[in-house]
Q: What sequence folds into this?
């Protein structure tokens, strides 16, 4: 199991010789995910569980599991890395916790009830809507946390718990962006397949120095996040502002399977990767077109890693978008199942089906085996040292699209792994994608960028 699907929480005492005594299962199972077990100052075991559908705080007391502050919110995030935290103890009777609700993060103080009834939650107001990265630490006087907002990039901040004063300890970037060029995210819930709804953040174009003709609707870039067990956040993301400041609208989709909306929403992707995420990205674009917010004739989609797979699947199996960009995306699910790193070695069993028993599904949903359905321009970006999605996935897709006579381009980067880290390469990839769309959609760039060699244009 992946940690967000099913985990077990065990305890055991120490014997006199230092060995462990008889273990005891406190909570968890195949259908329950546990996050951040912590001992309180007095030795009570606290943890987060999604047994109620929502990742909520619980404690193990007097041999019973008791809810601490039940609510329709998530006090956890997917454990792609170890040592993550969303709460800490100010004292035995007070917890400082962060949680996500409605797509945005919040901070609160929970006054713990010593009896077996839930405690009282009081919001702590800070100018942040994103706390999913950067660490979380609490003591009796302060909380130090990684946080961002729609107008501020991620920073490490210190909150004085006695005065609620906030001090910025370190910003993730020293870049200052004029407020007239910052597009603020609008959380949207839109209809999708089977009578359900999905979530996204919509960013309208924003640049006070320019205005479009009143009769013209902007082109749209739909973004599909990676993971796929992950989420699009609302903190200031300069790579999104790159597009909105240049006249694009952006829809950052939290498709079914994303975190932050409960276990049931997260499990929509079980056995349905390549279907639910694809439908939700398509319906996100259609929703904006129907509302008259974007140009239905200039729809593009991009994504990296798992988001790159969704992008390729959308372009291959649906006829809605007019261009796309895959950043180190998966084109061959079978190859991914055979050749990936240890942590994700059985991830696809839950997302698609057991391999090789359901090899038919892996072939059925792999864009590389269905390039006959792809009929719009595609640009691909790849790090040549990628061990998670090897370069041959992008190269095979590029050759197949090129052979079809469709406009395509492929940019490979020496020294890059899974996710680009070198500033020059990040800039080159953004500029190249913009240049590609300018050639496909037929608009003139305001600023010159280095051209890209495009086949079959």
A:
């Amino acid at each position: 199991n992946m940690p967000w699907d099913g985990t077990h929480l065990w305890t055991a005492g120490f014997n006199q010789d230092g060995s462990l005594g008889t273990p005891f299962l406190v909570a968890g199972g195949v259908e329950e995910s546990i996050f951040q077990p912590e001992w309180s100052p007095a030795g009570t075991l606290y943890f987060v569980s999604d047994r109620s559908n929502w990742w909520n705080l619980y404690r193990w007391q007097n041999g019973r599991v008791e809810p601490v502050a039940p609510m329709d919110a998530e006090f956890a995030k997917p454990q792609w890395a170890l040592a993550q935290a969303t709460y800490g103890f100010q004292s035995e009777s007070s917890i400082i916790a962060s949680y996500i609700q409605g797509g945005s993060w919040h901070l609160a103080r929970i006054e713990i009830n010593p009896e077996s009834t839930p405690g009282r939650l009081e919001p702590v107001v800070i100018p942040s809507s994103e706390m999913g990265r950067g660490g979380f630490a609490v003591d009796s006087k302060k909380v130090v946390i990684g946080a961002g907002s729609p107008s501020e990039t991620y920073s490490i901040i210190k909150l004085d718990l006695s005065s609620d004063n906030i001090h910025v300890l370190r910003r993730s970037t020293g870049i200052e962006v004029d407020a007239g060029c910052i597009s603020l995210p609008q959380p949207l819930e839109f209809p999708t397949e089977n009578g359900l709804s999905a979530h996204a953040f919509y960013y309208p174009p924003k640049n006070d120095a320019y205005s479009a003709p009143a009769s013209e609707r902007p082109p749209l870039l739909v973004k599909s996040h990676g993971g796929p067990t992950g989420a699009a956040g609302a903190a200031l993301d300069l790579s999104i502002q790159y597009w909105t400041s240049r006249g694009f609208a952006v829809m950052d989709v939290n498709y079914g399977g994303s975190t932050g909306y409960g276990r049931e929403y997260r499990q929509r992707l079980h056995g349905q990767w390549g279907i639910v995420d694809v439908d939700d990205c398509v319906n996100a674009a259609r929703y904006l077109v129907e509302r008259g917010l974007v140009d239905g004739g200039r729809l593009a989609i991009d994504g990296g890693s798992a988001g790159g797979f969704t992008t390729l699947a959308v372009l291959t199996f649906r006829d809605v978008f007019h261009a796309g960009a895959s950043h180190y995306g998966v084109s061959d699910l079978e190859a991914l199942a055979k050749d990936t790193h240890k942590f994700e070695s059985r991830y696809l069993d839950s997302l698609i089906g057991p391999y090789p028993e359901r090899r038919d599904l892996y072939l059925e949903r792999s864009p590389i085996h269905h390039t006959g359905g792809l009929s719009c321009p595609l640009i691909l970006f790849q790090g040549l040292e990628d061990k998670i999605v090897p370069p041959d996935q992008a190269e095979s897709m590029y050759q197949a699209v090129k052979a079809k006579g469709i406009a395509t381009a492929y940019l490979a980067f020496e020294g890059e792994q899974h996710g680009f880290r070198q500033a020059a390469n990040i800039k080159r990839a953004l500029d190249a994608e913009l240049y590609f769309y300018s050639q496909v959609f037929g608009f003139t760039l305001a600023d010159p960028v280095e051209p890209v060699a495009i086949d079959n244009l």
Observations:
- The chain has a mean pLDDT of 94.
- DSSP finds nine helices and 22 strands in the chain.
- Residues 386 and 417 are 4 Å apart (CA to CA).
- The two ends are 45 Å apart (CA to CA).
